[in-house]
Give the backbone structure.
Amino acid sequence: MNEVIQPNRAALEDALAQGRWNYLIDDIVAGRCQDPRTGRPVTLDLDRVVIAPTLDGAEADLVAGLGFGAPLGLVADEATMEAMGRRIERALQRHRPKPIVLDLPHADQPTVAALAERLDGCEAAIAVGSGTINDLTKAACAHLGLPYCVFGTAASMNGYTSSTASISLSSGLKTTLASRAPRAFFADIAVAASAPGRTAAAGFGDCMARPVAQIDWWLSHRLFGTDYHQITYDIEAADEAALNARAAGVAQGESDAVGRLYRVLTLCGLGFAFTGTSHHGSMGEHQISHYIDCFAGERHPGTLHGEQVGVASLTMARLQQRILAQEQPPRVRPTRFDEESMRRRMGPEIAAQCLTAYRRKALDEKGAEKLDARLRAIWPELRRECARFAIQPEEMHRLLRAADAPTTAGELGLPVDFYREAILHCREMRDRFSMLDVADDAGLLADFAQEER
Ligand SMILES: [Zn+2]
């Protein structure tokens, strides 16, 4: 029978005390949960998720259940091959594994094409790694029509189970390619706990997107009537609270904290199944990170996605707090386009693509009037509603610090003037409406950005 999910802290702690790391996740993956809005069971195109203290010795059984043929492409980089790849290779001899070890790979189109060539002749693939390895394998397998599964080596981001791959085009624009979700995601907590500390700190930073993305998404819903799904937050609320109470454990690589981090990342990723979109975990804060990845060029410090998202989430939390603290709503004006500046910063090709997205949400004279009226009508309610979702910036800062995650552009190693540019201009890249849009159309964003460090 399908049930509406009502996870709570006590049930979660009970399950984890019994070592049931897949509590709730199993129900969602098996289609035993119902979307309260539609009353329909939620279905996923992924068969299995297993989070366990260790998967050492279980690899063959886990993969056998997927019905993959042979040979099997085993995709890793040098570090992840050492961390877990060799072990999997030995365990899967029956599948005639073909190790494909990538040298400091980037998630870009030429690398996807080269990987697809090396996977040619394989019946399926196994990704052993985290963000980049998973995205590359996902995209190459989608191209070849091959099934794949992923063994995560770090709790560094929430994209393991997603059906899209984040890949840079030759223009430099990072894009979300529709691909296919892995057939299974296997997370070995011990491997992630001994991965470099900054990977778990990055995963924790990615989780900080929740409160700010929720406010942005709710804002868009209340102002324009766009979709909003509370269920994506309900399924992870108990886990998030328990994780945040263990932020220091993330920094210390405690397996309990890292396991819980994997759960929050996984539940956020599975939220996609309820909505078909990533809005619940990717709004203004991810736009800032996205701008950094697309346009920092030589200035990019090589930071991880989640490290950038953590810093950007803190920026968004401050912006949202500042605007929502006002008794009176901001007064918006029609959106001003500076196409020349966009072309200069982005190059003509990307600027043209971004303008198409930007125009979809830009306010004209009438749109600004309408939005102003709507803001005036619901402002006191809206402030109360958003307050329920928020983590105050001071608290978010404390949590990031405790997890040993960066909190400023300076700590990321990013030039501060470029970070301010990202805050001010990232909204040009996507049609998702966030507090960045309200702030900029109200003439408040430039001053705010100047204060961010
Ligand atoms: Zn993210």
Q: What stands out?
A: The CA atoms of residues 104 and 284 lie 29 Å apart. The beta strands are 3-4, 33-34, 48-52, 72-77, 97-102, 124-129, 148-152, 164-168, 174-178, 184-188. The mean pLDDT is 95.
